[in-house]
User: Fold this.
Amino acid sequence: MDHFFTLDAEMVVQNRKSGKMNQTTINDAYKKEARERACMLITRWMYEAAIPFNAVTYPSFQPMIEAIGQYGVGMKGPTLHEVRVTNLKKELALTKDLMKDHMMEWGKNGCSIMSDG
Assistant:
């Protein structure tokens, strides 16, 4: 049932930032402890994987956390194959789709995207 009525993770993050989801609950003390534990585990993983600290400021970070929370208890992380093959292909297709407008502009203006790096 929750599958049909659960908000998209990105929408939840936008609503939280705009102040639309600030309801206090009885379990706030428990949630505070659970959040501290989860944040510590995320931070420890970031240390082990040498992920830069500013990665938590990326726009994709909070929707990722929200999606994990919406899945609930028992979520298994992505396998190495899913990260290296399946999801990489999906992201590549998404990036190519985002580039279509730029490619049309290249034909009109003779410009290209330049990157330092």
In short: The chain has five helices and no strands. The chain has a mean pLDDT of 86. Residues 80 and 86 are 10 Å apart (CA to CA). The helical segments are 2-5, 9-17, 28-49, 61-71, 80-109.
